[in-house]
Amino acid sequence: MAASTCFFQSSSPLPFNFKQKNNQIHISIFRIRCYNTSQKHSSVVTLTTDPPPVYSSVKAFAPATVANLGPGFDFLGCAVDGIGDTVSLKVDPDVHPGEISISHISGQTPNIHKLSKNPLWNCAGIAAIEAMKMLRIRSVGLSLSLEKGLPLGSGLGSSAASAAAAAVAVNEIFGKRLSVDDLVLACLKSEEKVSGYHADNVAPSIMGGFVLIRNYQPLELMPLKFPSEKDLYFVLVTPEFEAPTKKMRAALPLEIGMPHHVWNSSQAAALVASVLQGDLFMLGKALSSDKIVEPKRAPLIPGMDAVKKAAIQAGAFGCTISGAGPTAVAVTDNEEKGHIIAQHMVLAFQKEGNLNASANVKQLDRLGARLISSVHLN
What we know:
GO terms for molecular function: ATP binding; homoserine kinase activity. Pathway: Amino-acid biosynthesis; L-threonine biosynthesis; L-threonine from L-aspartate: step 4/5. The protein is α+β, with helices and mostly antiparallel strands. It has 10 helices and 14 strands.
């Protein structure tokens, strides 16, 4: 029998090693070159092959999210219809095969100039790179354009929406080969760099609806189906105030007492049950009952306590901080009532917090991140 000797050889672009050049990410793979010692010839065996693109370009949308939902800190979130981020992605012959470039960032959100076009430091870029790694893309280069529909640092999952739209766009352009779990894991790499390894924004942005994260090692996601015949409206009021996620997480207690643990556990259980039953009255009560996170964060957002009281007095079933803030979220079952509640919340921010605020009244997004347009290859 002939003997063979094999060694690793760095070859064409594929997602195992990274080199940065001109804001493009070069992704390399290793090949194995084998020499047949008796016949004096060699052969190259590629460990993997990348899928060809199905489309020349795609556009994907990912919705905003409300995370934590009071007592569901870091393990519960939901998607919000009508607002979010959009990513356009195309096969670009001017981008080296296996690389991704961010060509354009647009949107009306303040401080958009803070967003980097370097894919290693942009939420959309990081998630796109991870999706390319999973697909082992090496034969084409991609360029990405990000349209921000969400304000930065708003507590509405802005970074998660960018990541989700990018990961879905990459998956779509290569024929939808990645699973939901794969997409969430790709987005988690992005979240890890921005605000921590938690999926309560990215999972609902990808999947839609309410999502409970049961476990991270391994990842276990539990969609919670809110009854389709029930109406649910989120009143989202965002003040002109910056609440960086890292600062808001730093305010959290390192230890909690048993009474608060028991209380929050019961409220989180009630929250899950009320979502499944479509019981908005109980959902609102549970949403408003966090005794661990909200009491530490609310004082850091001027006027938040008054805003919560104003929302409930105006008829909201409940109110809490969306994500890390500063957005306040209230829930109701009627859009017209939602606008009235929003007016009272905006006034409370102005009066008690000396902050101007904008308001949206939106329904639950049941679809999650999705393809909105595509162009087939010629």
